[in-house]
Amino acid sequence: MADVLRIDKWLWTMRLFKTRSIATEECRKGRIIVGGVAVKPSFTVLANMTVQVKRPPIVYTYRIIELTQNRVSAKDLTRYMIDVTPMSELKLLEDVKLASSGVRDRGTGRPTKRERRDLDNFLNS
Predict the structure, then answer these.
(1) Can you give the pLDDT of all 125 residues of the chain as single tens digits?
(2) CA dihedral for 61, 69, 66, 37, sign (positive or negative)
(3) What is the pTM of this model?
(4) Is 36 left (phi over 0), alpha (psi -120 to 50) or beta?
(5) Alpha-carbon distance 124 to 59, whole Å?
(6) What is d(CA 59, CA 53) in angstroms, rounded to the nearest whole number?
């Protein structure tokens, strides 16, 4: 167990990002927030801190329980952190998923191949 840990390494060990370099880049872009302030990759985190991760369209919030130097398995994540993302944020994510599901009302947007053939037949007759 570690007492302090760099934020980029913590993000990687908690499986929030696939690689540590991606976690570092997200910190540089200002998408990692601790205490209301965007942090650099070298920022050190402690137990009981709250970390916000911006992943448009929502902001995930995590509370650190315990720190570790090694990447943990997915089933052991609850020992090291708690997801405290508000339900309103998760509802927003569901709304965005439904809005972009690809369902198109008939007659809106670009015509389908069948509608285009019917239109061509009508105009050429």
Answers:
(1) 678 999 999 999 999 999 999 999 999 999 999 999 999 999 999 999 999 999 988 999 999 999 999 999 999 999 999 999 999 988 888 888 777 665 667 667 788 889 889 888 888 87
(2) negative
(3) 0.75
(4) left
(5) 53
(6) 6
Q: Which stretches does DSSP call E strand in 1-125? A: 5-6, 32-34, 37-38, 44-45, 50-55, 58-64, 81-83
Question: How far is C-alpha 38 from the geometric centre of its chain's CA atoms?
Answer: 16
Residue at token pair 């570690």: 2
Task: Record the tokens describing residue 78, joined without a space.
Answer: 């609850």
Those residues whose C-beta lies under 8 Å from the C-beta of residue 16, and which sit 6 or more positions away, are: 23, 53, 60, 62
What tokens appear for 23 in the block?
């976690």
d(CA 39, CA 29): 9
